[in-house]
Amino acid sequence: MKEKLALAIGHIFGDGGINNKGRVYYCNSEKFLIHEFINSMSIFGVEPWIKEEKNITRIVYPVSVGRALWKLFGKFSSGKDTKIITNEIIEMPLEWKSIMIMAWFNDDGSVINIPSNYKVVAIHQKLKPLVIFIKDTLNELGIKSKIIEDDKKWLLRITGYENLIKFKDNINFSEDYRKREQLNEMINSITRPHFFIKNKILNLLKESPKTRKEIVKLLDLNPGVVYGHLHGWKRKNRKSNLGLIDLGLVNVNKQRKNIYELSTATPSAGFGAGTASTTSDASCG
Asked: Which residue of 10, 31, 144, 198 shows the fewest CB atoms closer than 10 Å?
């Protein structure tokens, strides 16, 4: 029941809404999402009105259902462009919010996998407070993201191997939905995950300080790759990439053989990065 409620709220924030009287509506061109929404609303024991159009399906529930949702979660939607994050939703357990945001990404999210190493999960929103709530919830889960203004809307973008992995593990898209497969394919297409290797080095140094030669042997990597991740890559006419030492995560003791060890400032949970661009599925408006 809790999971269904969280799914229902997420879809209402996505391609649905509640009008000022309490009538709940939802529409989408994706049959999978129509079925998911109807199933999530089944807890109310009310059959919806369904209208099939050429390229879209419209779902409507009576006023009693919307007023029941208001009683549980406050007036988080009560007419066109009125969606807000109520105190009741803010105080939801993180597990609930994760499911709610999954449904929201099902509706409005996109997976962008361009061969030129542009790998992004993104979501478009018209109202800035909504996208800020999504960003804050992602941050609670350790997922870094960035918000930019885009065509009079707000765009949240997630990028970087570690952030995409955390999104997959903590949010993801619904099982058997095509975007879930697209996310898996995109992550698997990242052949040299930059921060993934850095975290492997950090985990090794967490065990004990090591020389660069020891790190190379244990990770079976090219010595130049390990040096770059530790000391960074200096590039002409392009922004240099910082290494773990520049980031303040690793210290080097210069002895006969340089010994690398974790800095006391190194976070135990690892680290990542965020950014990118997208389109979303059709909305009810």
From this structure: 31
CA distance 116 to 181: 20
Q: How far is CA 269 from the centre of its chain?
A: 17
CA distances from 247 to 48, 163, 194, 261, 271 (A): 55, 18, 14, 13, 11
**Residue the block writes with tokens 């053989």:** 257
**Per-residue model confidence as pLDDT tens digits over 231-285:** 887 766 666 677 888 878 889 888 778 899 988 754 544 444 333 333 334 446 4
φ/ψ of 65, rounded to 5, equals -70, -45
Q: Where in the chain is the domain with CATH 1.10.10?
A: 194-262
Q: Which residue ranges does the chain devote to CATH 3.10.28.10? A: 1-83
Count Cβ atoms below 10 Å from residue 8 Cβ, excluding itself.
28
Assigned CATH for 1-83: 3.10.28.10
Q: What are φ and ψ of residue 90, in 5° steps?
A: -60, -35
What's the one-letter identity of residue 213? K
User: What class does CATH assign to 194-262?
Assistant: mainly alpha
- Spatial neighbors of 245 by CB under 8 A, at least 6 apart, are 230, 231, 232, 251, 252
